[in-house]
Amino acid sequence: MALMRLQKFLSAAGICSRRRGEILMAEGRVKVNGQTVTVLGTKIDPDSDRVEVDGRRVVKHAPQVYLALNKPEGVVTSCEQADTTVVTDLIDLPERVFPIGRLDKDSTGLVLLTDDGPLHHRLLHPSFDHEKEYDVTVARPIPEGALRRLAEGMPLMGTRTRPARVTRISASRFRIILQEGKNRQIRRMVGKVGHSVLRLHRVRVANVRLGDLKPGQWRHLTSVEVKALTATAKSQPADRPGSAVSSTSAKARPKSKPAGRKGRSRHSRPKTKPAKKRP
């Protein structure tokens, strides 16, 4: 078999991303045929060389695993965390899988998991604009102006959120489609328009929908879903769409006209006649 870079092998084996593999190598935690390897770019033969991380042998297995999980409330989107249930505790498989992205502990819904290291890395990279759709319920009726602000984007955590697509479902419930994933983004955005989230439920990631999975249940992605998801990750970043609010009563915000008389700039000063000289 053709030689492969060590960090790429670790990624393909589902151990970690390539960058994380480089860190493990630099920390002296990776061995090849019993010898610690710290030189980045080292190549191995996956068929004949024995690779270990922290003393455990790494084996590239096939086929790779792609899963959809309905995360229940209270479960942490991580591989391990002391004294709490994590999403991988709900997966009864011999393969070691990793969640793609995060979903708040208090939130529920779709989480994708895989042992495909390269795909995992690409989908987490901010340059890939795959959509994430959420069903949001707030504590009290939310007006059209607030939904419009969510859709248009707003200052948040030192930057500005990207435009989103928002669709009203009822007086206090709506769906929002994002192409980014800042920490607790939707809850923070809703808070900035004077409301609070009662329920946040993710129903779609890219082309994969949650469907009728019950809380705690998981399934394998179909071959069609895997193919489309892989194509999404390999494609170039999409153009960022404009914001949109779908509602029976939503209206476009009128453009404001500059103050002052017609034809005069707001920043221009009126011309004054020179003062007459005193005799």
Write the layout of secondary structure elements.
Layout: E1 4-5, H1 6-12, H2 18-26, E2 30-32, E3 35-36, E4 43-44, E5 51-53, E6 56-58, E7 66-71, E8 98-99, E9 108-114, H3 117-124, E10 132-138, H4 144-152, E11 155-156, E12 159-160, E13 165-170, E14 173-178, H5 185-192, E15 197-205, E16 208-209, E17 218-220, H6 223-234, E18 244-246
Parallel strand pairs: 9-15, 13-18
Antiparallel strand pairs: 1-4, 2-3, 2-5, 5-6, 7-9, 7-17, 8-9, 10-14, 10-15, 11-12, 13-14, 15-16
Helix pairs in contact: 1-2
Secondary-structure-based class equals alpha+beta
CATH architecture assignment of the largest domain = 2-Layer Sandwich
What would you report as the Rg, rounded to the nearest angstrom? Answer: 26 Å
Distance between the termini: 104 Å
Number of E-type strands: 18
Summarize the helix and strand pattern as letters.
EHHEEEEEEEEHEHEEEEHEEEHE
Oligomer: single chain
Arithmetic mean of pLDDT: 84
Beta percentage is 25-35%
Shape: elongated
- What are the low-pLDDT stretches, counting only 5+ consecutive residues below 50? 248-273
CATH class category name of the largest domain: Alpha Beta
CATH topology of the largest domain: Pseudouridine synthase
Number of domains: 2
Total count of helical runs of at least 4 residues: 6
Give the fraction of residues assigned to helices.
10-25%
The main pleated sheet reads as: 10 strands, mixed
CATH superfamily of the largest domain: Pseudouridine synthase
